[in-house]
């Protein structure tokens, strides 16, 4: 997770501000033979995301320089998914990437469509079922997914939250680590998206649904790709009962009937809270939501008041 400074120097000393990343964008586009004139900055967070005016291409500049191996893997995954005709975000042909400019990692992606339109949880289920049938080539070098290592790394960088809150989250993580080790997974082990939720499935301009954000691909129990949809419905009410029923019907498995569901839900929830904790120092809205969520974890109440981020 990204600790999210207010735009201080990162990587090779580049300021992660609109002005700083604009310079990186121009140099990266020059290296790739693309025209950066008129590019629109869509968001500036853990990534700076631009839409080019000259071509239907999205440019993503990562704030954290250490993501280079992840982005190399994401580009490789995108190219392989195209060869098997799987509906996912594509990378433009003929561009060698990722590129590193002024210490920052830059990648280029084909634009899904001109505006951001999410697909449905039913379509998410279809794509996950199809993805989970695929056998990845060894050449992708996918890592084994270790949720505890990911959670621990996220908790290590929580510098803007109180010592009391950080200690509480660390104790909760230690307890969940023991529970996770005892889980008996029932779905086949294999390739997962790693962050499968309604937020990572978009409507393509030709109408079909595509998976985006491919940098979390890994080898893991397939239950991990189902947990967010179940959690969003069960604890927060972000999906309706009908939507979740459709998801279960189209995927063919109800994670909530599996005995390990609560442990996996608690772990994914804690990751969500830790991620938000990194935004506390730079956003009052994030700070308020983080406080609300930690209070829920302490009391076991109020999850229906959580807001999506």
Summary of the model, kept short:
40% of the residues lie in helices and 14% in strands. The protein has 309 residues and is an alpha+beta fold. A hairpin with a 5-residue loop joins strand 4 (47-51) and strand 5 (57-62).
Describe this structure in words.
A hairpin with a 5-residue loop joins β4 and β5. The chain is built from 9 helices and 11 strands. Helices cover 40% and strands 14% of the residues. The model is unreliable at 1-6 (pLDDT under 50). The chain is of the alpha+beta class and 309 residues long. It starts with 8 loop residues before the first strand and ends in a 10-residue tail after the last helix.
Low-pLDDT windows of residues: 1-6
- How big a fraction of the residues is strand? 5-15%
Give the N-to-C terminal Cα separation: 15 Å
Spell the H/E element sequence.
Answer: EEHEEEHEEHHHEEEEHHHH
Principal-axis shape: globular
Biggest pleated sheet: 5 strands, antiparallel
Overall number of strands:
11
Rg, rounded, reads: 20 Å
Q: Overall mean pLDDT score?
A: 92
How many H/I helices? 9
Strand line-up of the largest beta sheet: 3-4-5-7-6
Structural class by secondary-structure content: alpha+beta
Indicate the percent of residues in helices: 40-55%
């Amino acid at each position: 997770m990204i600790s999210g400074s207010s735009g201080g120097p990162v990587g090779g000393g580049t300021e992660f501000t609109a002005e700083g990343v604009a310079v990186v964008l121009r140099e990266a586009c020059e290296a790739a033979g693309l025209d950066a004139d008129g590019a629109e900055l869509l968001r500036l967070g853990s990534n700076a995301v631009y839409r080019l005016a000259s071509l239907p291409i999205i440019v993503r500049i990562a704030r954290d320089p250490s993501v280079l191996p992840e982005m190399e893997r994401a580009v490789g995954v995108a190219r392989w998914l195209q060869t098997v005709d799987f509906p996912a975000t594509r990378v433009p042909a003929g561009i060698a990437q990722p590129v590193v400019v002024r210490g920052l990692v830059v990648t280029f992606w084909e634009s899904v469509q001109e505006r951001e339109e999410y697909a449905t949880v039913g379509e998410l289920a279809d794509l996950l079922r199809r993805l989970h049938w695929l056998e990845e080539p060894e050449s992708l070098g996918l890592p084994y997914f270790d949720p505890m290592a990911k959670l621990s790394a996220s908790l290590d960088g929580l510098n803007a939250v109180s010592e009391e809150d950080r200690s509480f989250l660390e104790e909760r993580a230690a307890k969940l680590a023991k529970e996770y080790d005892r889980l008996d997974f029932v779905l086949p082990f294999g390739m997962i998206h790693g962050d499968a939720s309604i937020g990572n499935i978009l409507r393509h301009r030709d109408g079909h649904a595509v998976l985006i954000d491919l940098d979390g691909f890994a080898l893991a129990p397939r239950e991990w790709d189902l947990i967010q949809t179940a959690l969003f419905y069960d604890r927060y009410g972000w999906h309706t009962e009908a939507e979740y029923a459709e998801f279960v019907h189209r995927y063919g498995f109800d994670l909530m009937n599996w005995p390990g569901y609560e442990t996996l839900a608690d772990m994914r929830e804690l990751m969500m809270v830790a991620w938000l904790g990194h935004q506390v120092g730079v956003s009052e809205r994030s700070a308020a939501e983080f406080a609300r969520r930690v209070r829920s974890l302490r009391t076991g109440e109020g999850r229906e008041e959580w807001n999506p981020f």
